[in-house]
Here is the input.
Amino acid sequence: MKVGAFFPPAKRERGSFRHLGHLKRLGPYVRQYAWVLSVSVGGLLVTRFFDAIVPQFMRTAIDSLVEPDTPSNVLWPAVGILGVVAVRFGIYVWARRLLRRVSISVSYDLRRRLFDHIQYQGAAFFNRYGTGDLMSRAVNDVGMVQRVVSFGWVTIVMFFFSIGTGLYFMIGMSPALTAWVVLPMPLVAIAGFVMARGMFPYFRAQQEAQAAIASFTQENLNGIRTIQAAAQEDEEIRRFREVSTVFADKVYRATRYAASMKLMMPFLSMISIVVVLFYGGTLVQRGEITVGTFSAFFAYLAMVTGSVSSIGMSVQMFTSAAAGTQRIFELLDSEPEIVETSAEDLPQEIRGDLEFRGLSYRYPEAARSALEGIDLHVSSGETIAFLGRVGSGKSTLLRAVVRLVDTPAGRVFLDGRDVCDYPLHRLREVVTLVPQDPFLFSATLRANLSYDDPSRSDEQIWEAAEAAGLAQTIRELSEGLDTVVGERGITLSGGQRQRATLARGLIREAPVLLMDDCFSSVDTATEELILSGLERMREGKTTLLISHRVSTARHANRIFVLDEGRVLESGTHEELLALGGYYADLEAVQRNQDQDRARKDRLVRNLQDSQEREEPAQRGEPAVASTES
Amino acid sequence: MSEAALVPPAKNYSAFDADLTHKALNVRLFVRLLGWMKPYRFTLISSMALVVVAAASSVMMPVITGRVIIDMVLLPNPQSADLPDYGLIAATRFLAELFSVEMLTAAVFLYVGLVIVQTLLRYAHQLTLASAALKGLRDLRVDLFTALERKPASFFDHVAVGRLMTRVTNDVGALFDLLSGFGMLAGEFVPFFLAVFLMLHLSSQLTGMLMFVVPVAAVGTYIFRVAMRQIFRLVRNSVSALNQYMQEDLMGIEIVQLSGREAMNSQAYGELNSENRRQQFRAVDYEVVFETFNTSLGSIATALIVWYGGGQVVQNEISLGSMVLFTQLIGMMVTPVIAVGQQFNSLFRSMASGERIFQALDWKETLHEPAHPVVLPERLEGDVELRNVSFSYAVGGPVLKDVSFKIAPGEKLAIVGPTGSGKSTVIRLLVRFYDIEDKTIFIDGIDVNDILSRDLRKRVGVVLQDFHVFSGSVLDNITLNNPAISRERAEWAAEVVHADRFIRELPEGYDSILAERGQNLSQGQRQLLAFARVLAADPEILVLDEATANIDTATELIIQDALHRLTEGRTSIIIAHRLQTIQECDRVLVLHHGVVEELGTHDELIAHGGIYHTLHELQFQDDEVTASLKGEAVEDGEGQPPKPPKASPSAEDDPWVPGVEPIA
Here is the structure.
């Protein structure tokens, strides 16, 4: 919890423009609006041209005023300016509106594509990218792309166009003066680019410090009870002050860098101004140019130098949009790990006969296999229980059936056909998995229980709720099935959530039901009640369940004990007790809950010894807590 | 204080969730904000002085071009010198004589000098302003954090952490925008007034005509703001609906996929996405008009200058230089008006932010602390007594009714009871998370209301059911950054509760960094870490809420043993969910609907045949009954000690091997 933990050592990377290449990926998204885009940019360029005409009117007016003898000409230039303003107004509004609409549409397309793509990703993907990360890409990074489409590149186009227009008019008035004005221009442009490049690390440091404040506060407030209970508030405040000071410092540094860069700009553009003043003034005195030309030069100069100083900002915008694009396409490039293949003539009616033939599975990047050569056959209508420690492969086995992991072909068969031959949608329709994590959506209980098919009738919902032991809970809620649960609704207890999750699975009455340890927060008595109800309900259907409790497993026709991805023991409750292996041990330990101290000590020691004896070195993998006696 | 404690103040916490928006500028809020700037006032004031001088010199630059260069140097017949020039003509003459150069050269020098001075002053202004504002707001942020840190549990029961987060991060950030916005406005308005002053001097008629810009811009901004209020709100709502939908979909992705809802959800998201696009389109349509309207103002004013000003030049009322000067000054007049328009929305946003911050700062809710706290002895005996404790939370009926019991030093008491019986409340009251009546809870005979809550909590260690892991090293998580706990002590504590072994196998041992919320720890490991944390603090009294979730049996046994070592010789109050734990304890207290129903040893209560007996039957005896039915005597374990499982538990939940058990 050192403050340092929040600030990874700053990588003082040099700014570079190489990463701008990522923006190329946006091509297809922008291209479909190519016509609209070119029309709107064309419109904006026309307004720029109109802007450039205004000083010409001014010049005419001024020149007519310098010579007292010639009749003054001020009305028409003024009308001209107003006319230009009116036309420009119309064109600008129209072009700008088109452009911004395009940028909104591009981000709309990107978001839609992202969402659709993410929906079909597998577990490995969601392991790599957390919810917060995915959200930040869909929100912030898409937002950056939107900004660059709507402002960034237009600024650059306008920059070159402004310089071009400015120079065009200047050359028309006095080529000699223009040459002098152009000379320092490259310097200004180079300074702008250097500045934009150099800003990057400063802004990143600032953003990291900001994130540090956010995560510190969030963690602290979430753990406030722990902190208050340990009377560590003062220490926490002191540390918060440190984090805040680091933030203030980073912002100050970024501000100072930006300010010192801005410091350069006036000095550089001053060169041009001095040239215009001095050399231009001399030309006026020599009578080579008029006073009107002289002031028009000033106006164009302001136009050119103004767009130069905004170039730095838009380069900055490009840099962050490029980073955002990279992050967006990183997601879009990842192919769903599960490939849909579907064979012909699949069985219409599923009996629920499951077979595993030498199923092995290893998670990507995992050190060892989660499953190793699992061979077992579950006849239709059987109830099978799986036991074993955390990490023994029980969950993976169930997930392999519904292809939540990338199940290898030809290893798992449903009614004699490879599960990989079924379309995913169909497979998950006939095989229902009730996962471990009791997640409910922020919606009514009705919507949650009939999540797979919102058109289900109330009778079906109540039936499932009854079977999952949730009906009483629902009846006690004032709004019954219409009670909103989840993050933005009422908070159900862990047990209630688990039962709701179970009801959501039961409602589908699938030929095969897989229950992944979904009674862990339900008390034994309730569990007993649900299980006996299930026995009736699932008559003739296949049920696979995972549990830590012998009392649950007892209900199954057959029990499998898994360890390190292999079947360690299998048989009925009685057979396994007679076998005297792990299951029997477990039964003894759970049964002997109320034994005296000495006996339990011995139990712990025995567990410990076996661990030392049988696994002297766990391939360097961390062990779970163990006794040091 | 007893009356206050009896009836908890009915606070309207919904104020914290309300969407604050401001219709009027709140000057008091700004004045209050300046209070935090007080230590940095010299920096702030000099920053303001710098920008005023810089702005003044920037107004002088067009005067040089218009007045000096055009009027005096370039025009064939120089204009009369009685027009205001702020001494610039004299200065140019002086420079020209001093260096014996031409007037034009001298004017250019003067111009360059002004640019340099102006640029440097602005640079200094920016830095001083940033420095003062950042430091002041740092202090404000720390003060806000401090206020939150000291709020009692009742506050956090009602206010979502997300809401508070926004205040500490975004809202303080918005105030920075407000302050720098004001700095910017100051930089714009000084030239505005100087420009207007100068223009009035040159030609009051022309200036009067040009002043129309101000009301037009103001009315335009007002109309825009009114029109946009509703639209912006719709945009905000559609954005948050969009994001919420996606976030939930991602969090429940497994259910989505298992239920075959992908296509249905994509469509639902698509609809929200289209709605968002529609609202954004609407907002853009208005915004673009407003934006263009603002940028056109300057050009319209220029046209006026050319027409009306030109006429005045013809009639010799103003000089040509003055007219050119006007066209340059008009920019200074229009820019701040536009800037105010642009700043308007962010100004009001910042006002709402300030309001939210001060609301949190002003929130009067604290634990009652004794005026004359008792100084606790070096070591407490650990005698705990509850005397007729009744308690209810801010909402709902009484949770505890007339609860009384006494625990002798070193005794272990198990509290059992069904959900909602008030078990956790007892624990919360013992560590003074809530205010209680005087003379109801005593430790070593001292009323806990006479002890500072900070002192009390150092003596009463608590293990909550939901163990919070902070991101940071394992060591930091054990010491909780308490400088009083040495590394040796932390390691010793971990060793005693069997946490040492798994910690040592982490890549960096005690210095390994734990992820947020301890995602890289198994449940069992987290429980042991919680034990180590409380043991390291060495409290005389321990209150513990046992974790309910099922862990595999081997790990559970280790936790049981650790719990035994932890409670050894320490007065302990344990909310027990497991039979083993209950039997470890000396006595059992049965709480039901907030009333102490039974109190005695396990055997006594079983014999008594009351609630405990029934609970025992229902929850704990299941396996016993089964076992007995199968004719295996429960007590008959002597002859056949349970054999160890075939493989080591160390292969379990390898939390540091990524991807082993995805999305647990």
About this structure: Chain B touches chain A through 196 residues (CB under 8 Å). The longest helix of chain B spans residues 262-314. The radius of gyration of chain B is 37 Å.
